[in-house]
């Protein structure tokens, strides 16, 4: 696939996925209200019309057929009003629409994965036709189907006198002749239809199957293309659109005799357009690209002028921009920290360096803000999961979303979607009680609630998934852990937090039976791995009978962090500023030993373990006495402790570089190392993973 077609496919996928998300939101809100509003019907009709058109241009026939049939269904609903459908059929309509969106999404995923599309969607078409017959009381067919039948009976486009024009009730017809040799006349005709339908929804056109039948191109070349109108105003607006359309050689207005008094021909309607140089025959790729532009323009008209200034950019380009920004930060640090400049009095250089740092910081903030997107996209998808699982499990549950405008890095949003989904499903399946009577007897609202919230706290975002269900029974968890052999100490020594942490052990599940949603022991450990992969931590809290809360603390971005450089022997380490609570010096007398001989220190009426970094990583250093070095009090996740290092070198903005892949064989990430960074003098500094370092130290006995 060449770049042009690949870019067009990216545009198609982005547009279609966005429309399907909008469709899900409209359907969920309508289902809550119990009916579709007029705006809902029009919105769904527009979404399906757009998907149908763009899918036809891309020759994705299954997607086009599904969207086309739903468009016909909502054309009928729009013409006959939603109130004409009874409550039973409305519920059936909601189920049919959710089934349709699932089918569309499945086909789009096939396109994304370069898999063949479904070749037969007849069963779906039959399902829609059956529903149409039900709501129409089997007495008449939908108006859209009538128009199609009329055209199939021979009432097609014609260059004959007005008396031989199609008898579909139109007061006037606009006959279009395309440039000779322009090629793909049927697709050009459909692009004209798409443009005109933005101002006139009830447009009729002949041949009626230009979007799906390439053979109509020959008919259009011979007889022209007809558009039917019922008012003078819409005809005049259409003429203005045709005037500005490409590859139109001429156009004229034809009227049945009965409508001659009602309509007056627009000025110059029968005149030929100014002669223009004829372009070479367009290629299919050019025609499809032009169609995509028409669809994009149509969307812009519907979504309003406030989105005209927005553009979509490939994420790989933003990744490259971020990488270049990181290199710029490193290079700026290398220039200003050059050993050749040490000891020299360079006032002008220092002033310029400060200005450069200011501009670099502003540029970095701008680049990072470009990548920041709201978590709303990941949150809103949970509405559908709650709805589907509620029906499947026969549970009445509402989802409350708080802080959906909170912004985080695009890469992080992609990584948190699965963990959030697993936790919401866990709350639906495990948390919320099976029977509403049990909730009422416990003094709760019969309708369960799951609260999904996000908020900023400094340089990280905190996401919580909380339910008001039955909570977690610690005794049941310990019993299952004992049977699985995952306990590492006597049951009596486990704290509440440690018991709940067992839920995230691989293969652990408290469900005795495997269901569609849970019981296989996958999910909770996936949550932990995915969140830790992006530098976050997961904690679980629960109160038996009152519910459970999962908290995810995630960094806003993984690319550039503020760090404190510390030295241990000849090695340099970076500790993220967000993990540091305090740094201080102590005397040897202030060091206390616990029962296991571990060094601890008292700080603010609490005791914290001391981890000697030189001992942990086996580094040679002359600083081994406590009063000669310095303690850095750090906190990561649920752990808080002190690191003993030689000295603090100063705060530095660093670019996080991933560790080489070949180091994965040594399980180095579990050694408390998050990555590395390049310092101004070209040396490498190891970035410490505070959350995992304590675990690593404990396993080595430090």
Short description:
With 702 residues, this protein is of the alpha+beta class. The protein is 44% helix and 19% strand. The strands form 5 sheets. The chain has a 6-stranded mixed sheet.
List keywords for this structure.
702 residues, alpha+beta, Four Helix Bundle (Hemerythrin (Met), subunit A), Alpha-Beta Plaits, Helix Hairpins, 5 domains, 6-stranded mixed β-sheet, 5-stranded mixed β-sheet, 20 helices, 19% strand
Give the proportion of residues in helices.
40-55%
Largest sheet: 6 strands, mixed
Helix-strand makeup class: alpha+beta
Approximate strand percentage: 15-25%
Mean pLDDT over all positions: 78
Q: Can you tell me the residue ranges where pLDDT is under 50 for at least 5 consecutive residues?
A: 138-163, 264-308
- How far is the N terminus from the C terminus? 57 Å
Count of all domains: 5
- How many DSSP-defined strands? 22
Provide the gyration radius in Å: 33 Å
Instruction: Provide the CATH topology of the largest domain.
Output: Heat Shock Protein 90
Which superfamily, in CATH terms, is the homologous superfamily of the largest domain? Histidine kinase-like ATPase, C-terminal domain
What's the architecture of the largest domain, going by CATH?
2-Layer Sandwich
Q: Record the strand order, biggest sheet.
A: 14-18-19-17-16-15
Q: Count the helices. How many?
A: 20
């Amino acid at each position: 696939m060449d770049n042009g077609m690949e870019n067009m496919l990216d545009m198609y996928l982005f547009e279609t996925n966005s429309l399907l998300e909008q469709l899900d939101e409209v359907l969920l809100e309508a289902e809550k209200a119990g009916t579709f509003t007029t705006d809902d019907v029009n919105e769904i009709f527009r979404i399906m019309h757009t998907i149908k058109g763009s899918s036809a241009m891309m020759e994705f026939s299954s997607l086009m057929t599904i969207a086309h049939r739903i468009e016909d269904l909502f054309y009928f609903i729009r013409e006959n009003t939603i109130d004409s459908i009874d409550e039973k059929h409305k519920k059936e309509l909601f189920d049919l629409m959710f089934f349709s969106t699932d089918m569309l999404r499945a086909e789009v995923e096939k396109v994304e994965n370069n898999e063949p599309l479904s070749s037969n969607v007849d069963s779906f078409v039959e399902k829609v036709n059956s529903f149409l017959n039900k709501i129409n009381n089997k007495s008449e067919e939908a108006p859209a189907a009538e128009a199609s039948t009329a055209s199939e009976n021979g009432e097609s486009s014609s260059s004959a006198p007005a008396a031989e024009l199609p008898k579909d009730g139109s007061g006037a017809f606009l006959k279009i002749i395309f440039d000779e040799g322009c090629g793909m006349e049927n697709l050009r005709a459909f692009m004209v239809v798409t443009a005109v339908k933005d101002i006139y929804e009830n447009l009729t056109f002949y041949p009626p199957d230009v979007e799906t039948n390439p053979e109509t191109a020959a008919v259009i070349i011979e007889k022209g293309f007809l558009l039917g109108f019922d008012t003078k105003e819409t005809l005049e607006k259409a003429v203005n659109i045709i005037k500005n359309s490409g590859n139109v050689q001429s156009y004229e207005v034809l009227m049945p005799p009965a409508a001659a008094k009602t309509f007056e021909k627009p000025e110059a309607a029968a005149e030929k357009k100014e002669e223009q140089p004829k372009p070479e025959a367009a290629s299919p790729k050019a025609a499809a690209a032009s169609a995509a532009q028409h669809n994009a323009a149509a969307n812009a008209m519907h979504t309003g002028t406030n989105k005209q200034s927005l553009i979509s950019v490939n994420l790989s380009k933003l990744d490259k921009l971020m990488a270049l920004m990181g290199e710029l930060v490193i290079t700026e640090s290398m220039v200003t920290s050059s050993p050749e400049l040490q000891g020299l009095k360079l006032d002008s250089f220092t002033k310029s360096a400060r200005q450069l740092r200011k501009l670099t910081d502003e540029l970095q903030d701008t680049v990072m803000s470009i990548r920041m997107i709201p978590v709303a996209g990941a949150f809103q998808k949970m509405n559908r999961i709650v709805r589907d699982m509620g029906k499947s499990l026969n549970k009445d549950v509402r989802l409350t979303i708080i802080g959906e405008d909170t912004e985080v890095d695009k890469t992080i949003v992609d990584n948190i979607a699965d963990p959030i989904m697993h936790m919401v499903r866990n709350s639906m399946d495990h948390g919320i009680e099976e029977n509403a009577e049990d909730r009422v007897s416990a003094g709760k609202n019969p309708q369960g609630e799951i609260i999904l919230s996000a908020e900023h706290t400094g340089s990280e975002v905190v996401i919580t998934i909380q339910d008001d269900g039955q909570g977690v029974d610690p005794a049941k968890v310990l019993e299952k852990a004992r049977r699985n052999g995952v306990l590492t100490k006597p049951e009596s020594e486990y704290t509440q937090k440690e018991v709940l942490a067992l839920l995230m052990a691989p293969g652990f599940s408290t469900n005795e039976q495997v269901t569609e949603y849970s019981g296989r022991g996958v999910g909770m450990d996936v949550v932990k791995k995915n969140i830790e992969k992006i530098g976050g931590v997961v904690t679980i809290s629960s109160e038996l009978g009152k519910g459970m809360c999962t908290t995810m603390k995630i960094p806003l971005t993984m690319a550039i962090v503020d760090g404190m450089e510390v030295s241990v022997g000849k090695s340099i380490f970076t500790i993220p500023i967000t993990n540091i609570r305090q740094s201080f010096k102590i005397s040897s007398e202030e060091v206390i030993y616990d029962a296991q001989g571990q060094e601890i220190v008292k700080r603010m009426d609490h005791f914290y373990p001391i981890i000697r970094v030189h001992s942990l990583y086996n580094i040679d250093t002359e600083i081994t006495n406590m009063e000669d070095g310095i303690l850095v009090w750090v906190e990561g996740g649920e752990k808080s402790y002190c690191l003993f290092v030689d000295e603090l070198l100063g705060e530095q903005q660093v670019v996080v570089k991933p560790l080489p892949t070949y180091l994965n064989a040594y399980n180095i990430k579990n050694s408390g190392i998050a990555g590395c960074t390049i310092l101004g003098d070209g040396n490498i500094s190891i970035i410490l993973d505070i959350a995992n370092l304590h675990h690593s130290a404990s396993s080595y006995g430090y």
